[in-house]
Amino acid sequence: MNATHHQDIVIIGAGYTGMLAALRTARRTRRMPVRITVVNPSARFTERLRLHQIATGQQLAEYSIPDLLAGSDIEFRRAAATALDPTKRMVALDDDTALGYDILIYALGSVSDTAGVPGAREHAFTLDNRALAQRFSEQLPGIAATGGSVTVCGGGLTGIEAATEIAESYPGLSVTLLSRNEPGAMMGEKARAYLSRALDRLGIDRRVGSDVAEVLPGAVRLSAGELLESDLTLWTAGVRVPPLAADAGIRTDERGRVVTDATLRSVSHPEIYAVGDAAAVRMEWGPLHGTCQSGMPTAAYVGDTIARRLKGKKVAPFRFGYVHQPLSLGRNDAVIQFVTADETPRRWYLTGRAAVGYKETVSSSPLPVFRLSRHLPVPVRPSSAGHVA
Ligand SMILES: Cc1cc2nc3c(=O)[nH]c(=O)nc-3n(C[C@H](O)[C@H](O)[C@H](O)COP(=O)(O)OP(=O)(O)OC[C@H]3O[C@@H](n4cnc5c(N)ncnc54)[C@H](O)[C@@H]3O)c2cc1C
Asked: Is 366 in the pocket of ligand 1 (CB under 6 A)?
């Protein structure tokens, strides 16, 4: 690296992965001539892992991004990235300014995909940000008071966590979970049976194999034609990623995620690294799907790898294997399915209070990791991440 030239490293997105990538890069390059800037539309850090708790009105701690970055020499820009120009190496921001970069970390995450079903965008809530989750929570007491109904569309982990949280907080509500596959289909038989009993205990009605054809005000129409009354509808069926990379001609997969090489650089633009939900990362056993569990190791790896490359050192490829599928079932129950690296269920699973404690540890761990990362490169799943020390 030319010692007289500052390397400008810009991170777009300050969710779980953007924050960790920024802090880790700053720590690893602290005596080097780099300038690191993080761009995010809100100065508040969104604990996405807890948005279903916000959606039922729980009061949770709030964290400010500038506070989490304090003392790290990272500059925070409160803005949304609106476009990328990879030829000029510029990011356009919604405050009509632009940032130049030598290295870009693309960490824009994902949002619920409401585009495919008519009415979903207009008439269903999502858990995409704190404000939406809060607005959803404000509706619940009134609907519960009249014994009304809530429909959760999507029986993946987010849908199950939301439905159980709602049913536990508001026993007077009639909660329906609509899903294409059996909830917890990816879990082992015993964990799935436990989940099924928990859904029964909470009185959650399941409609399996039900594709939603349309979301209406006060109702959901299934593809078989049935009309379900729904005072409040929550959409958790699938995610999509922001279109910035695809719009800029950066190579993306069919879902708009940046296709990466073995060291998490864009295959078309190697000065761009991609992490978290917005990255299409492939391991020898298959592709990663968007989770915090896999996203945090991508971020830690990218911080380490950028620093090593700037120092002219060799880098090892990124390696990751899943460990668990942690699932909260309200505040008083949970089920954790342990898995092999490629997410095949193992025989072991955890339930009840032990699982509640485990899940809480998983959900709260990113914040201490951020705080510690200002001072030392904290191991982030070293057993499976395999990043360079
Ligand atoms: C209710 C719920 C529960 C979950 N539970 C689990 C769990 O138990 N375990 C697990 O592993 N995963 C879980 N997930 C998934 C997990 O939250 C995501 O995989 C994780 O947040 C991905 O991190 P990220 O940094 O890629 O994206 P995000 O955390 O979504 O962060 C993206 C950031 O980019 C910002 N951004 C977006 N557009 C722009 C722009 N144009 N310019 C600048 N910034 C922008 C956003 O504001 C945000 O701050 C859950 C998700 C939900 C919704």
From this structure: no
